[in-house]
Write a structure and sequence with these properties.
90 residues, alpha+beta, two-stranded parallel sheet, globular, Glycoside hydrolase family 5 protein, hydrolase, hydrolase activity, GH
């Protein structure tokens, strides 16, 4: 009966994700991980460089907020029903 704590999650995918997908993916993960004891996003800020490329888009909390994928208040959601079509039975 010990709640699970989720650490080091981010928005990376194994495919070329669209902005619209990342917007929903962020809410879906927060909704799932909030069911446990808490969560930590990896990483708060990723430095911009040519070598890093576009990593900050999916790995930086600050960049995720700037791009609109993540909410300013970590407890808020853009769409708290983002998972409903996938978990509700008809």
């Amino acid at each position: 009966d010990t709640p699970l704590w989720f650490g080091e999650w981010g928005l990376p995918t194994q495919f070329d994700a669209t902005d619209a997908f990342l917007y929903m993916w962020a809410d879906a993960q927060k909704l799932a991980y909030t069911q446990g004891a808490g969560w930590i996003f990896w990483n708060f800020k990723v430095e911009q460089s040519e070598l890093a490329g576009n990593l900050s888009r999916q790995w930086s909390y600050i960049e995720g907020v700037k791009l609109g994928y993540l909410t300013q208040n970590p407890a808020d959601y853009h769409n708290a029903s983002v998972c409903a079509p996938y978990i509700e039975s008809s």
